Amino acid sequence: MTPPASRRHFLQLAGAGLAMAGTGLPRLAQAQPASAAAPAPREGAVLLNFNECPYGPSPAAQQAARDSIASSGRYRFELAGQVRDTFIEQAGLPADHVRLYPGSSEPLNRAATVWTGPQAGLVVADPTFETLGEVAAAHGAHVQKVPLRDDGAHDLRAMVAAAHAQPTGLLYVCNPNNPTGSVSPPDQLAWLLAHKPAATRVLVDEAYLQYSEQPSLIAQVTQRDDLIVLRTFSKLYGMAGLRLGVAAAHPDRLRELARLGDNPLPVPALAAALASLRDPQLIPQRRLQNTKARQATIAWLGKRGFSCVPSEANCFVVDVQRDGAAFAKAMADNGVVIGRSWPIWPQRVRVTVGTEEEMAAFRRAFAKVAGVPA
Protein backbone atom coordinates (compact mmCIF):
# COMPACT_ATOMS: atom_id res chain seq x y z
CA MET A 1 0.00 0.00 0.00
CA THR A 2 1.24 3.48 -0.77
CA PRO A 3 1.70 5.27 2.58
CA PRO A 4 0.48 8.80 3.20
CA ALA A 5 3.11 11.25 2.04
CA SER A 6 3.57 14.92 1.44
CA ARG A 7 3.54 16.35 -2.06
CA ARG A 8 7.21 17.24 -1.60
CA HIS A 9 8.01 13.61 -0.72
CA PHE A 10 6.10 12.46 -3.79
CA LEU A 11 8.09 14.81 -6.01
CA GLN A 12 11.32 13.65 -4.38
CA LEU A 13 10.40 10.04 -5.23
CA ALA A 14 9.60 11.02 -8.81
CA GLY A 15 12.92 12.83 -9.10
CA ALA A 16 14.74 9.84 -7.67
CA GLY A 17 13.11 7.64 -10.31
CA LEU A 18 14.32 9.95 -13.07
CA ALA A 19 17.80 9.91 -11.59
CA MET A 20 18.01 6.12 -11.88
CA ALA A 21 19.15 6.23 -15.49
CA GLY A 22 21.83 3.66 -14.76
CA THR A 23 19.49 1.18 -13.11
CA GLY A 24 17.70 0.08 -16.24
CA LEU A 25 14.39 1.65 -15.23
CA PRO A 26 14.08 3.77 -18.40
CA ARG A 27 14.09 0.50 -20.34
CA LEU A 28 11.09 -0.87 -18.49
CA ALA A 29 8.58 1.03 -20.56
CA GLN A 30 10.16 -0.40 -23.70
CA ALA A 31 9.66 -4.01 -22.62
CA GLN A 32 6.38 -4.44 -24.45
CA PRO A 33 5.07 -7.69 -25.91
CA ALA A 34 6.10 -8.22 -29.51
CA SER A 35 2.44 -8.17 -30.49
CA ALA A 36 2.02 -4.68 -29.04
CA ALA A 37 3.58 -3.26 -32.21
CA ALA A 38 1.04 -5.01 -34.46
CA PRO A 39 -1.26 -2.86 -36.64
CA ALA A 40 -4.53 -1.81 -35.07
CA PRO A 41 -7.29 -4.35 -35.75
CA ARG A 42 -10.08 -3.36 -38.06
CA GLU A 43 -13.21 -1.90 -36.51
CA GLY A 44 -15.58 -4.53 -35.18
CA ALA A 45 -12.96 -7.28 -35.03
CA VAL A 46 -13.18 -9.93 -32.31
CA LEU A 47 -10.16 -9.43 -30.05
CA LEU A 48 -8.75 -12.69 -28.67
CA ASN A 49 -5.11 -11.63 -28.52
CA PHE A 50 -4.15 -10.05 -25.18
CA ASN A 51 -5.76 -12.36 -22.57
CA GLU A 52 -8.17 -9.65 -21.50
CA CYS A 53 -11.39 -10.61 -19.75
CA PRO A 54 -14.18 -10.09 -22.29
CA TYR A 55 -16.68 -9.06 -19.61
CA GLY A 56 -14.72 -6.10 -18.27
CA PRO A 57 -15.13 -4.92 -14.68
CA SER A 58 -18.17 -6.27 -12.88
CA PRO A 59 -21.24 -3.99 -12.75
CA ALA A 60 -20.47 -3.18 -9.11
CA ALA A 61 -16.85 -2.39 -9.96
CA GLN A 62 -17.92 -0.15 -12.84
CA GLN A 63 -20.29 1.76 -10.60
CA ALA A 64 -17.65 2.13 -7.90
CA ALA A 65 -15.14 3.45 -10.44
CA ARG A 66 -17.66 5.98 -11.75
CA ASP A 67 -18.52 7.10 -8.24
CA SER A 68 -14.84 7.60 -7.43
CA ILE A 69 -14.17 10.08 -10.23
CA ALA A 70 -15.36 13.08 -8.22
CA SER A 71 -12.81 12.35 -5.49
CA SER A 72 -9.97 11.49 -7.87
CA GLY A 73 -8.47 14.91 -7.42
CA ARG A 74 -7.02 13.49 -4.18
CA TYR A 75 -4.55 10.63 -3.84
CA ARG A 76 -6.97 8.61 -1.68
CA PHE A 77 -4.33 6.74 0.34
CA GLU A 78 -7.08 5.55 2.70
CA LEU A 79 -8.82 3.80 -0.20
CA ALA A 80 -5.59 1.98 -1.02
CA GLY A 81 -5.51 0.91 2.62
CA GLN A 82 -9.04 -0.49 2.37
CA VAL A 83 -8.11 -2.52 -0.71
CA ARG A 84 -5.00 -3.86 0.98
CA ASP A 85 -6.84 -4.71 4.18
CA THR A 86 -9.59 -6.53 2.30
CA PHE A 87 -7.03 -8.46 0.27
CA ILE A 88 -4.95 -9.53 3.28
CA GLU A 89 -8.06 -10.59 5.19
CA GLN A 90 -9.03 -12.90 2.33
CA ALA A 91 -5.49 -14.15 1.74
CA GLY A 92 -4.65 -14.58 5.42
CA LEU A 93 -1.52 -12.43 5.28
CA PRO A 94 -0.02 -9.78 7.57
CA ALA A 95 -0.26 -6.24 6.24
CA ASP A 96 3.52 -5.85 5.94
CA HIS A 97 3.67 -8.79 3.50
CA VAL A 98 1.57 -7.08 0.80
CA ARG A 99 2.09 -4.10 -1.46
CA LEU A 100 -0.16 -2.71 -4.18
CA TYR A 101 1.09 -1.65 -7.60
CA PRO A 102 -0.48 -0.22 -10.77
CA GLY A 103 -0.72 -3.67 -12.38
CA SER A 104 1.55 -6.67 -11.89
CA SER A 105 3.94 -5.75 -14.70
CA GLU A 106 5.54 -3.11 -12.48
CA PRO A 107 6.66 -5.51 -9.71
CA LEU A 108 7.81 -7.90 -12.45
CA ASN A 109 9.98 -5.18 -13.94
CA ARG A 110 11.23 -4.16 -10.50
CA ALA A 111 12.12 -7.76 -9.68
CA ALA A 112 14.22 -8.03 -12.83
CA THR A 113 15.94 -4.74 -12.00
CA VAL A 114 16.63 -5.57 -8.33
CA TRP A 115 17.46 -9.27 -8.44
CA THR A 116 19.10 -9.87 -11.81
CA GLY A 117 22.16 -8.44 -13.51
CA PRO A 118 25.53 -9.41 -15.03
CA GLN A 119 26.33 -11.60 -12.00
CA ALA A 120 22.79 -12.79 -11.30
CA GLY A 121 20.98 -14.59 -14.08
CA LEU A 122 17.32 -15.37 -14.67
CA VAL A 123 15.77 -18.78 -15.34
CA VAL A 124 12.42 -18.89 -17.14
CA ALA A 125 10.28 -21.35 -19.07
CA ASP A 126 10.04 -21.22 -22.86
CA PRO A 127 7.55 -20.02 -23.85
CA THR A 128 6.29 -17.89 -20.98
CA PHE A 129 5.40 -14.25 -20.30
CA GLU A 130 8.41 -12.42 -21.71
CA THR A 131 8.58 -8.99 -20.08
CA LEU A 132 10.64 -10.16 -17.11
CA GLY A 133 13.22 -11.76 -19.39
CA GLU A 134 13.39 -8.71 -21.64
CA VAL A 135 14.05 -6.37 -18.72
CA ALA A 136 16.61 -8.74 -17.19
CA ALA A 137 18.46 -9.07 -20.51
CA ALA A 138 18.48 -5.30 -20.95
CA HIS A 139 19.97 -5.17 -17.47
CA GLY A 140 22.88 -7.38 -18.49
CA ALA A 141 21.57 -10.63 -17.03
CA HIS A 142 21.93 -14.00 -18.70
CA VAL A 143 18.41 -15.34 -19.34
CA GLN A 144 18.29 -19.13 -19.41
CA LYS A 145 15.18 -20.40 -21.18
CA VAL A 146 14.05 -23.93 -20.31
CA PRO A 147 11.60 -25.54 -22.77
CA LEU A 148 8.23 -26.58 -21.42
CA ARG A 149 7.52 -30.28 -21.02
CA ASP A 150 5.55 -32.16 -23.67
CA ASP A 151 2.34 -31.57 -21.67
CA GLY A 152 2.98 -27.82 -21.69
CA ALA A 153 3.87 -27.57 -18.00
CA HIS A 154 7.04 -26.03 -16.60
CA ASP A 155 9.98 -28.43 -16.43
CA LEU A 156 10.75 -27.43 -12.86
CA ARG A 157 13.52 -29.98 -12.37
CA ALA A 158 15.33 -28.71 -15.45
CA MET A 159 14.81 -25.13 -14.28
CA VAL A 160 16.36 -25.93 -10.90
CA ALA A 161 19.30 -27.60 -12.65
CA ALA A 162 19.74 -24.49 -14.79
CA ALA A 163 19.69 -22.30 -11.69
CA HIS A 164 22.46 -24.40 -10.12
CA ALA A 165 24.54 -24.29 -13.31
CA GLN A 166 25.09 -20.52 -13.20
CA PRO A 167 24.77 -17.69 -10.66
CA THR A 168 21.01 -17.15 -10.65
CA GLY A 169 19.29 -14.25 -8.95
CA LEU A 170 15.73 -15.08 -9.92
CA LEU A 171 13.67 -18.06 -11.06
CA TYR A 172 10.30 -17.20 -12.63
CA VAL A 173 7.22 -19.46 -12.68
CA CYS A 174 4.01 -18.19 -14.28
CA ASN A 175 1.28 -20.43 -12.85
CA PRO A 176 -0.94 -20.99 -14.78
CA ASN A 177 1.50 -20.22 -17.55
CA ASN A 178 1.05 -17.57 -20.20
CA PRO A 179 0.68 -18.47 -23.11
CA THR A 180 -0.31 -22.08 -22.44
CA GLY A 181 -2.58 -21.91 -19.40
CA SER A 182 -0.79 -25.01 -18.09
CA VAL A 183 -0.27 -25.44 -14.35
CA SER A 184 2.47 -26.60 -12.01
CA PRO A 185 0.85 -28.43 -9.07
CA PRO A 186 1.73 -27.71 -5.42
CA ASP A 187 3.92 -30.79 -4.90
CA GLN A 188 6.13 -29.86 -7.85
CA LEU A 189 6.41 -26.25 -6.69
CA ALA A 190 7.30 -27.49 -3.19
CA TRP A 191 10.08 -29.59 -4.74
CA LEU A 192 11.38 -26.53 -6.60
CA LEU A 193 11.46 -24.42 -3.44
CA ALA A 194 13.25 -27.20 -1.55
CA HIS A 195 15.95 -27.81 -4.20
CA LYS A 196 16.67 -24.46 -5.87
CA PRO A 197 19.88 -22.59 -4.92
CA ALA A 198 19.61 -20.95 -1.51
CA ALA A 199 20.43 -17.48 -2.84
CA THR A 200 17.94 -17.61 -5.72
CA ARG A 201 14.62 -15.80 -5.34
CA VAL A 202 11.53 -17.52 -6.77
CA LEU A 203 8.86 -15.31 -8.32
CA VAL A 204 5.51 -17.05 -8.84
CA ASP A 205 3.19 -15.08 -11.09
CA GLU A 206 -0.41 -16.02 -10.29
CA ALA A 207 -2.08 -13.63 -12.72
CA TYR A 208 -4.33 -16.41 -14.04
CA LEU A 209 -4.75 -18.47 -10.87
CA GLN A 210 -8.37 -17.45 -10.26
CA TYR A 211 -9.39 -19.16 -13.50
CA SER A 212 -8.07 -22.44 -12.07
CA GLU A 213 -8.81 -24.69 -9.11
CA GLN A 214 -5.06 -24.70 -8.45
CA PRO A 215 -4.10 -23.77 -4.83
CA SER A 216 -2.16 -20.56 -4.34
CA LEU A 217 1.34 -20.30 -2.90
CA ILE A 218 0.62 -16.88 -1.46
CA ALA A 219 0.38 -18.04 2.19
CA GLN A 220 3.95 -19.36 2.00
CA VAL A 221 5.41 -15.85 1.83
CA THR A 222 4.96 -15.73 5.62
CA GLN A 223 7.24 -18.78 5.95
CA ARG A 224 9.99 -17.92 3.45
CA ASP A 225 12.01 -14.84 2.58
CA ASP A 226 12.92 -16.05 -0.93
CA LEU A 227 9.41 -16.29 -2.44
CA ILE A 228 7.49 -13.51 -4.17
CA VAL A 229 3.92 -14.08 -5.34
CA LEU A 230 2.14 -11.72 -7.72
CA ARG A 231 -1.57 -11.25 -8.31
CA THR A 232 -3.42 -8.92 -10.65
CA PHE A 233 -6.88 -7.45 -11.17
CA SER A 234 -6.23 -7.35 -14.94
CA LYS A 235 -7.46 -10.85 -15.78
CA LEU A 236 -10.49 -12.47 -14.14
CA TYR A 237 -11.60 -9.17 -12.57
CA GLY A 238 -11.58 -7.54 -16.03
CA MET A 239 -9.51 -4.50 -15.05
CA ALA A 240 -6.66 -4.69 -17.58
CA GLY A 241 -6.99 -1.03 -18.54
CA LEU A 242 -7.47 0.18 -14.98
CA ARG A 243 -4.12 -1.24 -13.74
CA LEU A 244 -3.90 -2.68 -10.26
CA GLY A 245 -1.80 -5.57 -8.97
CA VAL A 246 -0.47 -7.06 -5.75
CA ALA A 247 2.96 -8.26 -4.68
CA ALA A 248 3.14 -10.54 -1.64
CA ALA A 249 6.52 -11.31 -0.05
CA HIS A 250 8.64 -11.03 3.07
CA PRO A 251 8.82 -7.36 4.18
CA ASP A 252 12.54 -7.23 3.34
CA ARG A 253 11.82 -8.25 -0.26
CA LEU A 254 9.06 -5.65 -0.55
CA ARG A 255 11.43 -2.99 0.76
CA GLU A 256 13.95 -3.96 -1.91
CA LEU A 257 11.31 -3.53 -4.60
CA ALA A 258 10.25 -0.19 -3.07
CA ARG A 259 13.76 1.26 -3.38
CA LEU A 260 12.99 2.05 -7.02
CA GLY A 261 10.49 4.71 -6.00
CA ASP A 262 6.76 4.96 -5.49
CA ASN A 263 3.63 6.53 -6.91
CA PRO A 264 0.05 6.94 -5.72
CA LEU A 265 -2.38 4.45 -7.23
CA PRO A 266 -5.23 5.28 -9.64
CA VAL A 267 -8.37 6.00 -7.64
CA PRO A 268 -10.91 4.41 -10.06
CA ALA A 269 -8.82 1.22 -10.07
CA LEU A 270 -8.81 1.11 -6.27
CA ALA A 271 -12.56 1.66 -6.11
CA ALA A 272 -13.22 -1.05 -8.71
CA ALA A 273 -10.86 -3.46 -6.96
CA LEU A 274 -12.54 -2.99 -3.60
CA ALA A 275 -15.97 -3.65 -5.10
CA SER A 276 -14.60 -6.75 -6.86
CA LEU A 277 -13.05 -8.17 -3.70
CA ARG A 278 -16.32 -7.69 -1.86
CA ASP A 279 -18.28 -9.76 -4.41
CA PRO A 280 -18.03 -13.44 -3.32
CA GLN A 281 -19.76 -14.70 -6.48
CA LEU A 282 -17.55 -12.98 -9.04
CA ILE A 283 -14.67 -15.48 -9.12
CA PRO A 284 -16.75 -18.68 -9.30
CA GLN A 285 -19.11 -17.15 -11.86
CA ARG A 286 -16.37 -16.00 -14.21
CA ARG A 287 -14.32 -19.15 -13.71
CA LEU A 288 -17.33 -21.19 -14.82
CA GLN A 289 -18.01 -18.96 -17.83
CA ASN A 290 -14.39 -19.16 -18.93
CA THR A 291 -14.09 -22.92 -18.41
CA LYS A 292 -17.24 -23.62 -20.40
CA ALA A 293 -16.18 -21.50 -23.38
CA ARG A 294 -12.57 -22.77 -23.31
CA GLN A 295 -13.43 -26.44 -23.09
CA ALA A 296 -16.07 -26.22 -25.82
CA THR A 297 -13.62 -24.57 -28.20
CA ILE A 298 -10.76 -26.97 -27.45
CA ALA A 299 -13.12 -29.90 -28.00
CA TRP A 300 -14.24 -28.42 -31.32
CA LEU A 301 -10.62 -28.03 -32.42
CA GLY A 302 -9.78 -31.56 -31.32
CA LYS A 303 -12.57 -33.05 -33.40
CA ARG A 304 -11.01 -31.37 -36.43
CA GLY A 305 -7.53 -32.69 -35.74
CA PHE A 306 -5.97 -29.66 -34.03
CA SER A 307 -4.29 -30.32 -30.69
CA CYS A 308 -4.15 -27.86 -27.80
CA VAL A 309 -1.95 -27.69 -24.72
CA PRO A 310 -4.06 -28.46 -21.60
CA SER A 311 -5.14 -25.14 -20.10
CA GLU A 312 -6.67 -23.88 -16.85
CA ALA A 313 -6.57 -20.19 -17.76
CA ASN A 314 -8.36 -17.78 -20.08
CA CYS A 315 -6.05 -18.68 -22.95
CA PHE A 316 -4.81 -21.77 -24.74
CA VAL A 317 -2.27 -22.68 -27.39
CA VAL A 318 -3.32 -24.56 -30.52
CA ASP A 319 -1.10 -26.24 -33.11
CA VAL A 320 -2.35 -24.87 -36.45
CA GLN A 321 -0.04 -27.23 -38.42
CA ARG A 322 1.41 -24.41 -40.52
CA ASP A 323 3.20 -21.11 -40.03
CA GLY A 324 1.58 -19.55 -36.98
CA ALA A 325 2.24 -15.93 -37.94
CA ALA A 326 0.65 -16.40 -41.36
CA PHE A 327 -2.32 -18.19 -39.79
CA ALA A 328 -2.84 -15.37 -37.28
CA LYS A 329 -2.77 -12.83 -40.11
CA ALA A 330 -5.36 -14.79 -42.06
CA MET A 331 -7.56 -14.94 -38.96
CA ALA A 332 -7.27 -11.17 -38.55
CA ASP A 333 -8.22 -10.75 -42.20
CA ASN A 334 -11.37 -12.68 -41.33
CA GLY A 335 -12.22 -10.42 -38.40
CA VAL A 336 -10.79 -12.40 -35.47
CA VAL A 337 -7.51 -11.23 -33.93
CA ILE A 338 -5.67 -13.99 -32.06
CA GLY A 339 -2.29 -14.10 -30.33
CA ARG A 340 1.04 -14.88 -31.89
CA SER A 341 3.43 -17.79 -32.19
CA TRP A 342 6.83 -18.19 -30.50
CA PRO A 343 10.27 -19.02 -31.96
CA ILE A 344 10.31 -22.34 -30.10
CA TRP A 345 6.74 -23.10 -31.31
CA PRO A 346 6.40 -21.53 -34.78
CA GLN A 347 3.25 -23.50 -35.64
CA ARG A 348 1.40 -22.89 -32.38
CA VAL A 349 -0.60 -19.74 -31.63
CA ARG A 350 -2.20 -18.43 -28.46
CA VAL A 351 -5.93 -17.77 -28.33
CA THR A 352 -7.66 -15.78 -25.60
CA VAL A 353 -10.96 -17.19 -24.35
CA GLY A 354 -13.76 -14.76 -25.10
CA THR A 355 -17.52 -14.87 -24.66
CA GLU A 356 -19.50 -17.74 -26.18
CA GLU A 357 -20.42 -15.44 -29.07
CA GLU A 358 -16.79 -14.47 -29.63
CA MET A 359 -15.68 -18.10 -29.56
CA ALA A 360 -18.37 -18.93 -32.12
CA ALA A 361 -16.87 -16.23 -34.34
CA PHE A 362 -13.43 -17.74 -33.71
CA ARG A 363 -14.66 -21.17 -34.83
CA ARG A 364 -16.17 -19.78 -38.02
CA ALA A 365 -12.98 -17.90 -38.93
CA PHE A 366 -10.76 -20.85 -37.97
CA ALA A 367 -12.79 -23.23 -40.14
CA LYS A 368 -12.48 -20.90 -43.09
CA VAL A 369 -8.74 -20.31 -42.70
CA ALA A 370 -7.89 -23.95 -41.91
CA GLY A 371 -10.24 -25.36 -44.52
CA VAL A 372 -12.15 -27.62 -42.11
CA PRO A 373 -15.88 -28.08 -41.46
CA ALA A 374 -17.47 -25.39 -39.33
Describe the structure.
- The structure is a single chain.
- The protein is of the alpha/beta class and 374 residues long.
- The chain is 38% helix and 14% strand.
- α5 (131-138) links the parallel β3 (121-126) and β4 (143-147).
- The protein is globular.
Radius of gyration: 21 Å
Mean pLDDT: 91
**Spatial separation of the terminal alpha carbons:** 50 Å
Q: Residue share in helices?
A: 25-40%
Main sheet summary: 7 strands, mixed
Number of strands: 11
Strand percentage lies at 5-15%
C-alpha geometry = globular
Unreliable stretches (pLDDT < 50, length at least 5) are: 1-37
- Order of strands side by side in the largest beta sheet? 2-8-7-6-5-3-4
Structural class by sheet pairing and helices: alpha/beta
| Secondary-structure element order, N to C | HEHHEHEHEHEHEEEHHHEHEEH
Number of helical stretches of at least 4 residues? 12
